[in-house]
Structures are given as C-alpha cells and as structure tokens.
Specification:
The complex is a heterodimer of chains A (112) and B (332). Chain A is mostly helical. Chain A is built from six helices and two strands. Classes of the chains: A mainly alpha (112), B alpha/beta (332).
Chain lengths: 112, 332
C-alpha cells in the first residue's frame, strides 16, 4: 500500500508498533494470538524496530515494561491498537452470525 | 485446607495475583489483564475443582498446589534479566560483556517447540541494546566461527530436571575441537533445577579441562522430600496415595524405563511455565487421560480448534482491510 511504502514498514511491524504504543511492553502470548506468527518471528521484528530506531527504552529500570515508540513514525498510523486487534472478536462473531448469502428478491419485482 | 486457601498460598508463593490474568483476550483488553492459558481468573478455580475430582483423597493433592511453581510470561522475562545481571557480576566487566556473550540454547530432541525457543525470543526484549539475534544460537555446529569470537559463552535452559540432557549437551559441546575456549568464560545457566542435580552437575564439571560455572536462579526440592510439603507423620500415607495416582496416569511404574510417574527420571518437580509444563513435573498435573483432567496440560497434548483457525483467518482479513482503509484516507 502507498502509505506503507512511504513509511517503509510491513503490516506486522505497524501492528506491533501500535501494540507498543498502547502497552509499552511486549507480551508474546497475546501478540502470537494476534499476529498468528511464531514467538521467534515476533522477537525478530522487535529487534529490527529497535535497530532501525522506531522503538527505544524510556527508563533504565525494568526495561521490558518501558518500551516506547520514537518520533520516527507518525503517531496517526499507530495510535489506535483497538482498530487492529481481534479484541473486537465479539463484533466479528455477531457479523458472522448474520447470514448475508441469501439473495433478496422483492415480491413485487415485476412492477419495478 | 480448602481451594480458596490453596489458591491464596499459590499466589503468595509465586508472587502473582490470579485476578491479573484471564484466558480470554477480550476480557484481558476490557479489564487490563494479562493473557494466560493456565491461570486465568476465569478458568483456574474451575479447573482445580475438575482436577481434584480425579482423586478420592482430595486433601492430599490439594496440599501440592501451594508449593507449585508457576512462571507467567512477565516473570519469565524478569528472571531472564536477573540471569544476565548474574553473568555481568561474575564476569566483572560491566554491561559491555553482554555484547560479547553468546547464548546457546539446547535443541529439542524431536525438533518441536522447546523452552529454548522462548528463551531466544524473550531474552533480547529487555536487552535490545546489547543482545542481538546473532548472539542467540541453537545449532553450535553452524555457528562455530561466531562462537569463537565470544568472550563469554552461556549454555542456557529453562529447567534442569534429571540433569541428563544438560550433561549430554555439555559433553557434546566440549567435544567440538575447533572452538577455541581459551580465555572464555563458560556458564551453564538454568532458571530452575532440582537442588541435588545441581550439586551433581557441579561435581561432574569440576574435572573438565575448561572451567564451567553452574548458575541456577531457583533451586527446587523434590516434592516428596521429608518435611517439605508433608510432615514425617503424613509422609507414608500421602506418598503411597500420590505414587498410586501417578502410576495410574503414567501407565507405568515409578523407575520403569521412560516412565513419567513422579516426573521423568523421578524428578518430582512441581513446575510449569506459561508456555508449557516440563515432563519432570508430576504427570497428574500435565497428562490428560480418561481418568485425569490435568491443570497444566503439556502443549504436545493440545491442538488448535477449527474455531481458532477460522478466527485467525478472519483476523488477518480484517487487518488487511484496515490497512487498505488508511491508504484511501491518505489519498483524500
């Protein structure tokens, strides 16, 4: 996508950045469910984001819980974790329950 | 002791609160909880009840729970950081030594997911400034050149149960002649190990040509040690009840070849990590059978459901749509 090409980040990297922006930490169990990739791959993305300057530690103590997103990426792309997460599972389930594969034919179709 | 009291002691001894965990992602988001498949507040108490239903002598088995060690992801990470601090101290060269330290995890014999995978994934997260992916090694054979450049080599595992795997891996490592170990600091590190096994390993490695220091973050006791969980008076009866249940679930006698009764090689551990339970733990805690509903099922017994696979697919589709939506908004 154009905007992604412009900022040079892949889907999973953007999703990961929005997670860090919200939680300031990495939770492999949660992210594995979200991204459906291995914990090793998640860790490699985090390492890449750090080496390219997208994330940093905001404190010296308990670094794991104080990861921050730098100014290298505009916040408008990552400030809404809820948009990505399946946290909206409930919503999705409701959508799935609504059957939309039936063709609706109005009774007075020949009048139309 | 009732279930509530046992949970309270379990929380105290593990320095966690069950209320902080949930097995449902939606609830985690709503209530600011951590995701956990074993001890989520929505499932833990019910699972304990079901697990206890496996046994007639509920009191004996419930007494094991307060002494059970459970390591959630956040604590696992903190423990990895504590290990790195210990290595820094031992090397006496400050934080810089970590940049020249190589971490070797033990490969899984069957090539399936192991504790080593989690260590390699979680270890750098709190140490992104000094631990790079090149320093995390699983296959020594393929990385001899880079290991030769190291100032410090750490062979690391989550748990040392019987000590057999650790011994085997260390011996294989020392057999590789083309790695120059002179002047390098060598460590065998584990988060958890049974106390007598640790001493045995230290003795064994004492006679080696290169000095190898054993670091264990937490030493565990065999659960049927005298005056640990059961008093001297209770021991005889409790021990026979537990052994009977273990042999029934394992399908083999204690001490038999490849028997998991009382844990692999009679390790008698009470330990689980957020991603799995080692087979050194009593098998009534991890082996599902017709007569046993375990509390901390081993991951090799679990398979993803069709619903989970479908949901993952839906999630990916929805995210692709959201990404495209940003593109459209940008153009407007």
């Amino acid at each position: 996508m154009r905007w992604q090409r412009l900022i040079g980040l892949k889907d999973n990297e953007i999703i990961l950045l929005s997670y860090i922006y919200k939680y300031h930490r990495i939770d492999l169990t949660d992210l594995q469910r979200e991204l459906d990739i291995s914990v090793g791959d998640i860790s490699l993305i985090v390492q890449k984001l750090y080496s390219e300057g997208y994330i940093c530690y905001s404190g010296e103590n308990n670094k794991r819980m104080s990861i921050s997103v730098t100014d290298k990426i505009e916040k408008k792309y990552i400030d809404d974790w809820d948009k990505w997460t399946k946290v909206n599972v409930e919503k999705m389930e409701k959508e799935e329950n609504f059957s939309s594969d039936i063709l609706y034919i109005p009774k007075k179709i020949d009048i139309i | 002791m009732n279930i509530d009291e046992a949970i309270q002691l379990f929380e105290q001894n593990n320095a966690i609160s069950i209320k902080d965990f949930n097995s449902n992602r939606l609830q985690c988001l709503k209530n600011k909880q951590f995701l956990d498949q074993y001890i989520g507040e929505d499932i833990f108490e019910k699972n304990i009840e079901c697990w206890l239903d496996n046994f007639k002598e509920k009191d004996v088995f419930l007494k094991l729970l307060p002494n059970y060690i459970y390591v959630p992801e956040m604590i696992y990470g903190i423990q990895l950081d504590a290990i790195l601090s210990r290595i820094e101290e031992k090397c006496n060269m400050g934080h810089k030594i970590l940049e020249e330290t190589y971490f070797i995890t033990f490969p899984s014999k069957r090539g399936i997911k192991s504790g080593g995978d989690i260590i390699r994934a979680l270890l750098p997260i709190g140490n992104l400034d000094c631990v790079k992916k090149e320093q995390l090694i699983v296959e020594v054979e393929k990385n001899k050149d880079s290991i030769s450049k190291a100032k410090c080599i750490v062979l690391i595992d989550d748990v040392i149960g019987s000590g057999k795997t650790a011994k085997e891996n260390i011996c294989n490592f020392f057999k590789m002649d083309d790695i120059d170990l002179n002047g390098k600091k060598l460590f065998l590190v584990a988060m958890y190990a049974e106390e007598t096994v640790k001493r045995e390993l230290e003795k064994e490695f004492n006679g080696f040509e290169h000095e190898l220091e054993v670091i264990v973050l937490y030493e565990c006791k065999k659960c049927l040690s005298e005056n640990y969980i059961f008093s001297k008076a209770e021991m005889e009866v409790s021990k026979s009840i537990i052994i009977r249940a273990e042999e029934e679930v394992a399908g083999k006698k204690v001490g038999e070849k490849k028997s998991y009764a009382l844990g692999f090689e009679n390790s008698q551990l009470l330990l689980s990590f957020f991603y799995n339970t080692p087979n050194n733990t009593l098998c009534i805690f991890w082996k599902p059978t017709k007569i046993n509903f375990p509390l901390f099922t081993r991951s090799s017994f679990r398979r993803p459901s069709i619903e989970e696979i479908k949901l993952n697919r839906a999630i990916k589709r929805k995210n692709a749509y959201e990404m495209a939506k940003i593109d459209r908004t940008e153009r407007q």
